[in-house]
Structures are given as structure tokens and as C-alpha cells.
Amino acid sequence: PEAKAVFSVIGMTCSACAGSVEKAIKRLPGIREAVVDVLNNKAQVLFNPTFIQEETIKETIEDVGFEATLIE
Ligand code: 9UX
């Protein structure tokens, strides 16, 4: 199974910020794809819910230093 989650990410000011968020998400188990858009302040993630849930992805974004809210 595959699930999709979209997070609002507050505080990213450059594309390197987005890159570090993307990298952190992709290091997690069960992630198929992560696309972080600094212009729209959004992170879209495709994942296998057997291995990871939205809350862990949210916490990972916040560990990098940004505020994340699940919006879809
Ligand atoms: Mo560069 Mo983006 O230090 O916040 S990674 S500004």
C-alpha cells in the first residue's frame, strides 16, 4: 500500500533548507518519494504506512528546524 501526505512547512527561506528537509525525510524507512517546495512552503511525501506514519514524518521535519503541519 502507498499513502500520500502533504505538510505545510514554515520557516524555510532558501532551496538548501528544502534540500535538507527532503534528505531527512528520504532517510526514513518506508519513504517512496519526498518533494519539498520552498516557494509554496509544502512537503509532499509518498510512503508505505506499514513502515512509517505521518506523525514520524512531521517530527522529522521539525527536528531539521521547521514547523510542520499535516494539511492533506
Ligand atoms: Mo541557508 Mo536556508 O543557511 O534557511 S539553508 S537559509
TrEMBL record:
Compartments, record wording: Membrane
Superkingdom of source: Eukaryota
Domain HMA: start-end pairs: 3-69
Family in the record: Belongs to the cation transport ATPase (P-type) (TC 3.A.3) family. Type IB subfamily.
Name of the protein described by the UniProt record: P-type Cu(+) transporter
Provenance organism: Cephalotus follicularis
